[in-house]
Amino acid sequence: MAKPLMARATAVWLVDNTTISFKQIADFVGMHELEIQGIADGDVATGVKGFDPVANNQLLQEEVDKAEKNPLHKLKLKFNPAAAGEEKRRGPRYTPLSKRQDRPASIYWLVKFHPELSDSQVSKLVGTTKPTIQAIRERTHWNIANIQPIDPVALGLCKQSELDAAVQKAAAKKAAEGGVMSDDERRKLVSTEQSLEMDAESRMPTAIEGLETFTLGGNNRSESEEEEKIVDADSFFNLPAGGDDDEDEDDADPRF
Fold first, then answer.
1. Which end is more exposed in the chain, N or C (fewer Cβ atoms within 10 Å of the end residue's Cβ)?
2. Gap between the Cα atoms of 193 and 237, Å rounded
3. Positions of the region Disordered (predicted)?
4. How many CB atoms lie within 10 A of CB 75?
5. C-alpha–C-alpha distance, residues 53 and 13, integer Å
6. Phi/psi at 47 (5° precision)
7. pLDDT tens digit string along 160-191?
8. pTM (2 decimals)?
């Protein structure tokens, strides 16, 4: 339901100038009933000047009269033809100044982990321009060396539901084109809830892929045979056998 402009000031005026109940005023301006009671007691909205909704073309006097006579009557905002379709206004998403520096990181995350998203979808999610998206896709951005991919949901640039809706739309488009998706692509093209519910497929690491049937050959001897083979120290070090003549020569005095 649409709410009037300057809701607090409108509530102040209705409290001061009508006998409408607190509940009716609260429902009309979108505030809590206790806040309206605080306005009447002077504890809330101190110093706020009342804003006349009737004089400012937001409420009909007939609505005020009906609400004063019937405590169950709900005030209805006056229809404004100029505001028709305003909620469906199209255009780039507004990004606060404090978060605009985070947009390149979120774009990098989207093009890296969801390359199936079109430029228009990325632009709608984070509120950027297509030349910026193309520059990051092609790694020609002036600051590409310092950009790290960060989830736009974590940065507060878009909602998780909006990201999931864009991903599901990309999945439907890819399925309509008849493309064959791998397991990784299939997980990227579903929402977060569906991806978490999927069973992980057991896959062999790439580093040892192809070695699942590899066995060592040429080693048919059993451990018992190895234990039975006794190697003595002389044969192990291959020491030459010396004669008695060598020992006699060593004992002889070199002076003679």
1. C
2. 69
3. 80-99, 213-256
4. 20
5. 8
6. 90, 0
7. 888 888 988 888 887 787 655 565 655 555 55
8. 0.41
